[in-house]
Amino acid sequence: MRPVIGAGRSTGGAEAPPQAAAQALPVPAPARPAAEVVPATGDPAVDAQARYVRLTRHALLAWRDAATAALDPAIAPREVPRRPLPLWPDAAVRTLPLAAWQEGELFVTLMRIQNEGDAELALDPRRFRGQWRAATVEQPRLAARDRDADAALVVLVSERPAADVLEEIRP
């Protein structure tokens, strides 16, 4: 499942603070508080998927509104490196971590992915480097550089910090 946020608007330009991102990519108000936990179903696969969705939702909402993060104290902010990481196998794509959180043994990382190439790019999460429990992309395609929609947000859920996962496979 790939939520579409911002209807194809670019997160382009320089890294934006959470307040600026809130204006660029509106998110509907949550149906229930972020701290409300979905009851377990007894099916481990379904319960894991529900947790990944909750963590992804938390990351997107917390990025746009820091007060949202306070609603779920079980999800703690983490430091992220302020340098590009090699998420995409093509050197013409730049990926920068923006924020990260941790809940128990799982980490969720919000990244900005930008196409710096001359051609449009299909953004298929199966091509991401590394091992991810879940990967959510803002939009399925990135426009060529310097065009609207040449950048998007990506949310990754993993068992280790995203930087650790990606540092192991650095070219």
What is the N-to-C order of secondary-structure elements (H for helix, E for strand)? HHHEEEEEEEH
> Approximately how much beta-strand content do the residues carry?
15-25%
Give the mean pLDDT. Answer: 79
Terminal Cα span: 30 Å
What about the largest sheet? Answer: 5 strands, antiparallel
Main sheet: strand order: 1-2-3-7-5
Name the helicity range: 10-25%
Structural class: alpha+beta
Q: Per the principal axes of the C-alpha atoms, what is the gross shape?
A: globular
> Care to count the β-strands?
7
Number of helical runs? 4
Low-confidence runs: 1-35
Radius of gyration: 15 Å
Word description of this protein:
The protein has 171 residues and is of the alpha+beta class. The protein has four helices and seven strands. The protein has helices at residues 18-24, 44-64, 66-69, 162-167, and strands at 76-78, 93-103, 106-115, 121-122, 134-137, 141-142, 151-158. It has a five-stranded antiparallel β-sheet. A two-stranded antiparallel ribbon has the order 4-6. A hairpin with a 2-residue loop joins β2 and β3 (106-115). The radius of gyration is 15 Å and the shape is globular. The chain starts with 17 loop residues before the first helix and ends with a helix. Mean pLDDT is 79; it is low at 1-35.
